Amino acid sequence: MSGRYSEHDVEHYERPRRRTRPRTKERPTYDDAVEGVVVTVDRGRFTLLVDDATVLAVKARPLGRKGVVVGDRVRVVGDTSGAEGSLARIVEVVERTTTLRRTADDDDPVERVIVSNAAQLVVVTALADPDPQPRLIDRALVAAFDAGMQPLLCLTKADLRDPESLLSTYRSLGVPWVVTRRGGDLTEVREHLAGKTSVLVGSSGVGKSTLVNALVPDADREVGLVNAVTGRGRHTSTSAYLLRLPPLPDGASSVDGGWIIDTPGIRSFGLAHVQPEDLIGAFPDLDEMTEDCPRGCTHGEDEPECGLDEAMAAGLADPDRVASFRRLLAARSVSEY
User: Fold this and answer.
1) Average pLDDT value for residue range 20-46
2) 3.40.50.300, 2.40.50.140, 2.60.40.3760, 1.25.40.10: which CATH number matches 34-93?
3) What is the pLDDT of residue 109?
4) Residues of the chain with pLDDT > 90: what percent?
């Protein structure tokens, strides 16, 4: 036999193929998984609340690039005792009831989920120091309506300026509001927050962290100052954080105080993901007046033959409410504050 090896040499025989584990479509059921809620996220580590225990967890590989955000209800396996050094694993994200989104700017097609499962969006704005930013408020309201969340205006620093001038702008929208001042009574604020999960958004320096510390005395959120030259606040909160509110006293019993999610101060709120038809849907009384609008009508001021204009001419629509809606609509394309 020619060749390097004879038939008696081991190298002559075919080498066994590498044994591989056969693939299967079956996936773990995680019957032993428990449910928790995401409190905060920090560099790939998730702090959860599981049966009143604070648990540190990572995301399981099968979740891939699926994002997990503050407010998410998740199913967890592993060590959920919360003991020092323990680490659990998130294996599933429970279907969200709401998602608050924004884009980096109006040309960015990538949506970023800020928080999930919040029923109320609290737009915190100072009446002075720094001055209010109506366009930023409008954009936050648009995001709330798009997410199906109840908006609430929280006006801080009422000891520095009368809130009436700002409130008159938003009355026609039917958005509820509360007014606070330094060291003032927060009973009305607590009543609006009770029994639900609320996310607080606002630019830096408006007093959001001060408000959170007053509502949750042991929150210890860092408080920043407003730059005297630029009139802007310094970012103090660096990540969103879910906090439980103390219960409200109600005679001999107590009422659930609810939850709040404190978020970092924002300077932009991109709305590339919001479509005009989605926004008008948040105003049922106006939406029904647009049924005969031409195809592609955005219901803006310059749209010809818009049903809103015809309804106002016939006295069927409140001009102030239509103007307020169109201001929100215009806020989608005006990013300067």
Assistant:
1) 84
2) 2.40.50.140
3) 64
4) 58
CATH fold of 99-262 reads Rossmann fold (3.40.50)
> pLDDT tens for residues 173-210?
989 999 999 889 999 999 999 999 999 999 988 999 89
With residues binned 3-state (H G I as helix, E B as strand, rest as coil), the percentages for the chain, rounded to 5, are: 25, 25, 55
Give the global pTM. 0.82
Give the helix/strand (H/E) hosting 170.
helix 164-170
* Distance separating alpha carbons of residues 240 and 71, to the nearest angstrom: 9
Domain with CATH 3.40.50.300 in the chain: 99-262
The rounded distance, in Å, linking the Cα atoms of 226 and 234 is 6
| DSSP helix/strand/coil, 199 | strand
Predicted confidence band of residue 21 (pLDDT cuts 50, 70, 90): low
End-to-end CA distance of the chain: 87
The C-alpha atoms of residue 10 and residue 276 are separated, in whole angstroms, by: 75
For the chain, give the number of residues: 337
Write down the pLDDT at residue 191. 94
Burial class (CB in 10 A: 0-12, 13-18, 19+), 140: buried
